[in-house]
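INFO  loader      accepted 1 record
INFO  loader      residues=312
INFO  predictor   begin
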Amino acid sequence: MTRTKVAIIGSGNIGTDLMFKITRMSPDLELALLVGIDPRSDGLARARRIGIPVTDRGVAGLIDAPDFADIKIVFDATSAGAHVANAEALAPFGKQLIDLTPAALGPFVVPVVNLDANLEAADLNMVTCGGQATIPIVAAVSSVTPVEYAEIVATIASKSAGIGTRQNIDEFTETTAEALHSVGGAKRGKAIIILNPAEPPMIMRDTVHVIVSADADREAIAEAVRRQVALVAEYVPGYALKQDVQFSLLDRSAVQTLAAFDTDDEVMQVSVYLQVEGAAQYLPAYAGNLDIMTSAAMRVAERVAERAAVAS
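INFO  predictor   done
INFO  writer      dumping tokens
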């Protein structure tokens, strides 16, 4: 089967990890070009060593590349601000963009939740690492009972947070909170990210708290969460529950973040504790925050390529 040609903009940690995933693991995608702006970057050097064409001229170098016409999908692993400029430059050429920044120009996409509904979008946004880890859980609970409020805390090793992540902290929290609502189904959402400087570096941990009606079916919620975790683990093998789903009854009057429920004097907090261990193909195993982004983006691109192959 002919593989779909793709390019990656961004030769930093995320772009380089994605390069290794595509070249080593994907039967559907062929990496035609790695795009950077620093000719001395480690990512471009590694690409050259394994025979991947490179350019250090940014999006202009991509447009001028000999294979540009054959490239169907472009991953953007730069920053939210850079993606806006890249998307504008590429707009006349009809490429499908998969955005690994929090720019949110296109629809939010979480593979196990809403991928099939967005396959034809010109610019698919991968939300954030915290969003990819936690939105599936919120969506799982929402499939059983209405979620009044969802709050997530993504804790990552400081060493796994590069310049782009640090520059986009505000966009991270805003984008993730919006996606907890628009994709996860929560009426309201809040996102927090913690960069933990501990040594040795910690593996990514994510905590999800959702507020539901006190009479919601606990076993149905727990089963929906377990099923969703298994689905995410199909493309992110290091994604796992740290313990059983937790349930706690709360006095509604003490929960200041909530609008009133129509029925119960009590509400229930559902707590889910996750760990995301990286595949350690390029980045260390503790960098699960980056691994889940590249794994999810590759899953999206492969599904896009499959759809295009069927259509042709």
